[in-house]
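Ops channel
N.P.: pipeline sanity check, posting one input/output pair.
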């Protein structure tokens, strides 16, 4: 049976600060010391090989990858003499895992592809599942998202074929953040629900709770605040039942914002204060970044921007200590937005441009697109329309890769507006029509906005009759929505009449 802790270093859905489970590490160190003491007692080559295999695994679980590599290499050498290809390829696959854990990605890929080829020859399905999983992690680390998804999906297929709940859980668990980074929220939600079901069947409440926390984030992103908050509450209740106060504190800090949009019995500030107390008592300085980020969100909602900036800056300092790239990028973007709102253009640009390469490395296309649009807005404020157009076009190209109609409509609308303002009417009309096409796949309000933009672009291009038609359609759409946009359209139509 596959050991779950063997995957701790390749499971891509660990918390932003890494998987904090000192008990597992301590147990592995005790096992490592006991096995070392037995080395002098073994007499046969076969016994020594088996002991090397156990010792290598114990070293890896104890976060001693260099020693794990040494023992797996020794075991591999003995396997070659014994002539056992099954154990030899097992060693080779684990050596690839060690290379991955020590950031030797090219070496990891070579070792794992060799192992994959041998497992294929032997038709050993569990080995194929595990090695595909590890290759998925290699390509994730290299930022090659399509290849990463390919290997994790292959691991998932083998896990399904074997009816192995643990392999299935781990594959879906690792696929979810990749789907989400590419903007495929429905696939991410589906993967998380599968992972949750498998972890439930395995009796693994902590990983179930962690995946539920991520599911809450996905549900929140599509605007279902009540379901997100209920999922978050269930996640926290699981951790509380397990007595995992540290896990509870980390998740509570992440989930606070869900409580800001709903009328829950427990308030966001209650949660974050309790999390802050736990982390402070345990001396987790870096992890306090999640608490400070949450406090920054609370202050932002309350309109206390100076206080929010102070908390976000504190969160950034702590995430830097953790080496948490997503945490750093997230607060950099939040600080940039605050500064943009206060017209501190140079400071906002500095924080956006700091966040952008971090999200690029993480492969988070939607966040990259949002930051590029922010840089476009800053360029417009600095009266640099050509630079703004370039940023908006880059954002739009990323949105096309993601394929989210709402974001495509928004991106096309930005490009229609700026090209129209620069008297590039042909391009403006092209983008305005695309914006309408995608808006119709989104919702009625987006469609009304796109019709209004088409009217504006047609008017500037010198086609008043067509502009009048689109303004009238937009006015009717706004009327159905009960939106004040209808008054703006009435004024636009009156302007055309003069």
């Amino acid at each position: 049976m596959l050991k779950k802790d063997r995957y701790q270093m390749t499971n891509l859905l660990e918390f932003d600060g890494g998987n904090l489970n000192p008990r597992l590490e301590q147990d592995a160190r005790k096992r490592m010391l006991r096995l070392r003491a037995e080395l002098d007692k073994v007499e046969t080559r076969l016994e020594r090989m088996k002991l090397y295999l156990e010792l290598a695994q114990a070293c890896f679980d104890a976060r001693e990858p260099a020693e794990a590599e040494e023992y797996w290499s020794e075991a591999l050498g003995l396997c070659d003499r014994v002539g056992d290809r099954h154990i030899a390829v097992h060693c080779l696959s684990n050596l690839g895992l060690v290379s991955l854990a020590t950031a030797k990605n090219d070496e990891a890929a070579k070792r794992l592809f060799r192992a994959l080829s041998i497992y294929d020859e032997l038709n050993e399905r569990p080995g194929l599942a595990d090695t595909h999983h590890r290759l998925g992690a290699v390509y994730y680390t290299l930022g090659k998202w399509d290849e990463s998804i390919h290997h994790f999906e292959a691991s998932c297929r083998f896990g399904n074929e074997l009816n192995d709940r643990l392999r299935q859980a781990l594959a879906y668990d690792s696929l979810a953040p990749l789907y989400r980074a590419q903007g495929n929220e429905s696939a991410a939600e589906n993967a998380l629900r599968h992972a949750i079901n498998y972890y439930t069947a395995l009796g693994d409440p902590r990983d179930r709770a962690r995946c539920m926390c991520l599911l809450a984030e996905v549900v929140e992103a599509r605007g279902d605040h009540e379901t997100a908050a209920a999922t978050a509450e269930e996640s926290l209740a699981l951790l509380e039942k397990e007595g995992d106060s540290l896990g509870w504190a980390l998740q509570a800090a992440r989930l606070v914002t869900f409580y800001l949009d709903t009328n829950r019995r427990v308030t966001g500030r209650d949660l974050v204060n309790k999390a802050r107390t736990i982390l402070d008592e345990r001396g987790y300085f870096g992890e306090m970044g999640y608490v400070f980020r949450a406090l920054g969100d609370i202050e932002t909602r309350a309109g206390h921007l100076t206080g929010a900036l102070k908390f976000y800056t504190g969160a950034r300092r702590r995430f830097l200590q953790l080496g948490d790239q997503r945490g750093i990028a997230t607060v950099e973007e939040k600080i940039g937005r605050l500064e943009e709102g206060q017209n501190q253009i140079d400071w906002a640009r500095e924080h956006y441009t700091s966040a952008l390469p971090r999200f690029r490395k993480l492969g988070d296309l939607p966040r990259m697109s949002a930051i590029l649009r922010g840089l476009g807005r800053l360029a417009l404020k600095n009266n640099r329309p050509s630079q703004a157009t370039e940023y908006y076009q880059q954002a739009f190209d990323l949105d096309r890769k993601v394929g989210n109609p709402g974001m495509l409509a928004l991106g096309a609308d930005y490009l229609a507006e700026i090209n129209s303002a620069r008297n590039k009417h042909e391009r403006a009309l092209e983008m305005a029509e695309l914006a309408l096409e995608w808006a119709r796949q989104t919702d009625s309000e987006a469609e009304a906005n796109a019709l209004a933009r088409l009217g504006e672009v047609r008017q500037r291009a010198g086609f008043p009759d067509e502009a009048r038609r689109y303004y009238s359609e937009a006015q009717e759409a706004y009327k159905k929505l009960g939106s004040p946009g209808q008054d703006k359209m009435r004024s636009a139509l009156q302007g055309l009449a003069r």
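N.P.: looks fine end to end. The first helix runs from residue 22 to 38.
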